[in-house]
Design goal:
There is one protein chain. This protein is α+β, with helices and mostly antiparallel strands. The chain folds into two domains: about 60 residues, no CATH class; about 90 residues, Immunoglobulin-like (Sandwich). About 25% of the residues lie in helices and about 25% in strands. The protein has a four-stranded antiparallel β-sheet, with no helix packed on it. Strands 6-5-9-10 form a four-stranded antiparallel β-sheet, with no helix packed on it. Strand 7 and strand 8 form a beta hairpin. Helix 2 packs across helix 3. The chain starts with 7 loop residues before the first helix and ends in a 6-residue tail after the last strand.
């Protein structure tokens, strides 16, 4: 008797047999397949508890349940709008001097802007205060741009504050007519 190594047809047959066995197992367990539109019990429970989910079945069930009045739309608490600009003193080890350098902070001031009020752009924002430009920013929370000035005493008072974008000197948005420090 000759024993031969399994060939590609034998491997294909083994894979087909494994797929057939898995299909039979799923059918036995009552799992819905692509031809079975009945949703699983967990999907129905998720749709009633959380609203539309990530699966097609739960989204369809959520729409149907909402139409029947079984599923209330999620309640969203009203959110007070953020101010466009907030200026406050902060503890920081370094900040910008407004001339492009990152220096040790003397009396650091954070200038925070509500970024959701500006249309999204691919370029980085530049905060301009009089003749000073601040290019380094962070996001302390979602929708907030924070620029840190190293020395509050070096910031000019009574000058306009605006936002521009790198590479687009003609496009700028006025933030305030005059910078007011706390």
């Amino acid at each position: 008797m000759t024993v031969r190594a399994p060939g590609p047809i034998d491997r294909w047959n083994a894979a087909a047999l494994a797929a057939l066995a898995a299909g039979a197992l799923f059918a036995t367990l009552g799992c819905a397949g692509p031809d079975d539109p009945s949703p699983s019990r967990a999907t129905v429970v998720d749709a009633r508890r959380e609203g539309a989910g990530t699966t097609r079945a739960s989204r369809e069930l959520a729409v149907a349940a909402e139409a029947r009045g079984e599923l209330a739309p999620p309640r969203v608490a009203p959110v007070a709008p953020r101010p466009l600009v907030t200026v406050r003193r902060i503890e920081a080890s370094e900040g910008e001097d407004g001339r492009g350098a990152l220096v040790a902070a003397v009396d650091a001031v954070a200038i925070e802007l509500d970024a959701e009020r500006f249309e999204p752009r691919a370029r980085d924002p530049i905060l301009v205060v009089g003749e000073l430009s601040f290019t380094r920013y962070t996001h302390p929370s979602p929708g907030v741009l924070r620029f840190v000035a190293a020395d509050a005493g070096a910031l000019p008072r009574g000058v306009p504050l605006y936002l521009s974008w790198s590479g687009e000197p003609d496009h700028r948005v006025s933030i305030a007519d005059a910078l007011e420090l706390p």
